[in-house]
Input
Amino acid sequence: MIYFLLVFIAGCFVLKGSGRLARDSRYTLDQNRKSCYRFSCEKLAVFLVLLLMCFLTAFRGETVGNDTAVYLGWFRRIADGSIHVFGDSYMEKGFLSYLFIIANFLGTYPQIMLIVSAAVCYVFIGHYIFDYSKNYYLSLCLVLCFLFSVFTNELRQGMAAVIGVYGYSLLKGKKYGKSALVILLAASFHISALVLFVLFLHRYFPRDYIKIFIMNTVLCVLSFGMLFNHLLVRLFPRFRIYFESERAGNGRLALSVEIAFSYILLYFAHRAYRKNKKAHSLELAVFELYAIFFILALNMSLINRVTYFFSAVLIAEMPNMLAQSDMKHKFKISILLFGALLGWFLVVLLFRQSWNHLIPYEFWTSNVLYR
Output
């Protein structure tokens, strides 16, 4: 089914780019029945694929996703009362309260938790796409590449990311108080969502590509000097185990690929927004932070999970950036960018199965063992 998703999204992408489903028509739907029909078909196709992804996520077996069995175990312990929501636990209280509500109002059967969580994630991200993206098919491709494995692995962080996009949207609408509250809600699911508060400083971010490149190079050197690692441990002592484990500092080849891709995206973002960078300082900050946190992850690879919050935002902002750009050969550039993303997703899926345990894909079985 995952291969079917790849083929379907690639086909939709080509169809979209060919002009047969031009999005400009969405602004004159009431004047053009044919455009309205095409727009509705586009929306329906994206909805059905999101529904398929949701099904795969909701009814996966406990062996699909490295952390799935761990979260199932937490749900069972919350349900039987062996762990209290506000007891002594490293797990965020918002997430534990969420598990408590499911267990007490919807049932204690473990599959219920996965179904509800998948529904929440895909409903939120689907609403975000339909409300903010100027190209649904490109956004659909990004959901598969950026968030599908997150929703099957880092459940808390995936939910925090889809909540966080609404904090970003409110910030974009200059509703600072509401944005802060939504980000705090996201942080109650995973504390790393607090990084979104950095976006409140977007006006102070450098806007020249060369200056950003120099700044990021300095950050890269400091990252290898362990400066940020020590600072992070002081601020969040609970993360010390990650710096001392075997996962610290590995995966640099993959991170190098992701850093290169994030720099390419940053370059195109600056090309797209060069006429009025002040008006787009928030969008540029998202692209900049996406690159920065990959760099900081070079010495401690788990930091790259912070990028989930910015990649979730980019699901709409990347297609929007390409749509409003005056670059030549936009369609060819889009094909290359999104083709590279799909290719990288496939490489990880086939050759690094231990990263997310998506192959072989197993559905729910009755003999569940909790860790």
